Amino acid sequence: MSKSFHKDVLNAINKKSGKKISSGAVNKLASTVKPSTMQNEAQLRQLIKQVSSMANIPVSEDTIQEIVSAVKKSGMNAGNMEALMKMMMNK
């Protein structure tokens, strides 16, 4: 994913949350994510909740399930993840 896309995602999160989240905080959280995290539903749910908390945006159980399903269907390649992020930014 391009640097400008990363910046766009961070800007969208900051705009929606009304909270300034630093790229350092995002990088710190991202560094804990491993490919196995995306395959383990409990770990993926925990990650979603951490991101929700960081962004100060409540996420319903239905939305968490939608995200989990989308991640599992995506096959986890970079192109699919970028499309997933764009979809989530438009929600």
Structure write-up:
This protein has 91 residues and is mainly α. Helices cover 76% and strands 0% of the residues. The chain starts with a helix and ends with a helix.
Summary, kept brief:
With 91 residues, the protein is mainly α. It is built from six helices and no strands.
Secondary-structure topology with pairs:
Layout: H1 3-17, H2 23-30, H3 35-39, H4 41-55, H5 61-74, H6 78-89
Termini distance? Answer: 20 Å
Q: How many alpha or pi helices? A: 6
Sheet with most strands: none
Order of helices and strands: HHHHHH
Strand content: under 5%
| Number of strand segments | 0
Q: How would you classify the helix and strand content by structural class? A: mainly alpha
Principal-axes geometry comes out as globular
- The percent range for helix content is over 70%
Query: What does the average pLDDT come to?
Result: 76
Radius of gyration: 13 Å
* Unreliable segments of 5+ consecutive residues: none
Descriptors:
mainly alpha; about 75% helix
